[in-house]
# Entry
Amino acid sequence: QQQVKQSPQSLIVQKGGISIINCAYENTAFDYFPWYQQFPGKGPALLIAIRPDVSEKKEGRFTISFNKSAKQFSLHIMDSQPGDSATYFCAASIANTGTASKLTFGTGTRLQVTL
Amino acid sequence: NAGVTQTPKFRILKIGQSMTLQCTQDMNHNYMYWYRQDPGMGLKLIYYSVGAGITDKGEVPNGYNVSRSTTEDFPLRLELAAPSQTSVYFCASSYGQFNEQFFGPGTRLTVL
# Structure
């Protein structure tokens, strides 16, 4: 059972353009939504995260938009750069269970930013 | 401060062999995790630990075992390797349950 659906599977964007990656979740108990960035041969690294009490969070060129009623959240990369070329994973977890934050990951989006 | 380190980087096993994937973190994190990453499938949680001596199953624990005797180390054991265990394995750690998970560089395992 895939609890977090991510799209698209791959994305090609021109330098300076906006990259948009979408995720949808099923479990309404999820209350922590991070995005991870992974370069080839490396482990994932946290990019930005949001809690459902806000609809948007911005850090530099990266913005998460969150729609609780639609159970969807998305990552927007403004002014995309070739250095942003990587695989991006959305994830979700229930943060208040009193135990470890068990992340459920989406299947990933491979982003390529062309010159 | 090395963060999360994993050994080996690559390994080829024959069916039925056993091995231990090592994971060490030097950030004094309480929580540690093991994930596997298969192409097009994202990362799946295998086991996790909330502290020394405490471990629990994740989403895909079958065929694996873990132990946590110290805060720093969280080894993953494969007892009878199977081709279905061919994957990239990532260890991660976090200070608390709500905190960022830091990932190691991964171990690429092939079972033939």
Summary: DSSP finds no helices and eleven strands in chain A. Chain A touches chain B at residues 4, 6, 9, 32, 34, 41-46, 49, 89, 95, 97-108 (CB under 8 Å). The CA atoms of residues 1 and 7 of chain A lie 17 Å apart.
